[in-house]
Design brief:
Blueprint: H1 3-8, H2 21-74
């Protein structure tokens, strides 16, 4: 009935000697730490990019306002 599910579980292996879990746990912790560091780096970079975008927006709006002020007296 569910023969397709039985094939999917062939790769599961539960060792009798629990010492075999040590490399897996170490690898998991390493990957977890790397993920956390990458997430924090992306968050900081995003914050810096938002600051830069805000500064550029302020400069553009200031330049546009100055341009509009120059054009108004001419009319």
């Amino acid at each position: 009935m569910f023969t397709f599910l039985q094939l999917g579980f062939l790769y599961l292996y539960f060792p009798e000697d629990k010492k075999e879990y040590i490399p897996v746990v170490l690898e998991f912790l390493l990957v977890l730490i790397i993920c956390i560091l990458v997430f924090r780096w992306l968050k900081k970079k995003s914050h810096k990019d938002a600051e830069k975008a805000r500064e550029i927006e302020e400069r553009v709006l200031k330049a546009r306002k100055e341009e509009m002020e120059k054009q108004l007296p001419l009319q």
